[in-house]
Design goal:
Keywords: Bacterial flagellum biogenesis, Cell projection, Cilium, Flagellum, Repressor, Transcription, Transcription regulation. This is Negative regulator of flagellin synthesis. Residues 34-88 form the Anti-sigma-28 factor FlgM C-terminal domain. Belongs to the FlgM family. It comes from Acetivibrio clariflavus (strain DSM 19732 / NBRC 101661 / EBR45) (Clostridium clariflavum). There is one protein chain. This protein is an all-alpha fold and 95 residues long. It has a domain at 36-95. It contains 4 helices and no strands. It has helices at 8-15, 40-54, 60-72, 79-94. The two termini are 79 Å apart. The relative contact order is 0.04.
């Protein structure tokens, strides 16, 4: 298909030249340094974690006292206390 004549909008796009501005030269470039900041909450958690690492898993003095009571026959546990602890642990698991 041939189009005769001049189509002003189409030819106007190709005939007009657009000027692009040049980028000005920057004299100095400032570099930014990386900065790390730790929140107060993270610092508190870190302190607690260090304290936990230094705390032994087994309190040997408590274990020794209980062992002595058990061997002497003085260590008595009530059945109701055992039942209460079992029920409490079951209800905590379900919630």
């Amino acid at each position: 298909m041939k189009i005769w004549g001049e189509i002003p909008k189409v030819s106007g796009i190709y005939s007009s030249q657009k000027s692009v501005g040049k980028v000005d030269k920057v004299d100095s470039v400032s570099s930014k340094k990386d900065v790390v900041s730790i929140s107060n909450e993270a610092k508190d958690i870190q302190t607690v974690m260090k304290a936990l690492k230094n705390t032994p898993d087994i309190r040997s003095e408590l274990v020794e006292r209980l062992r002595e009571k058990y061997e002497a026959g003085e260590y008595q546990v009530k059945e109701t206390d055992i039942a209460d602890k079992i029920l409490k642990s079951i209800t905590e698991k379900n919630t």
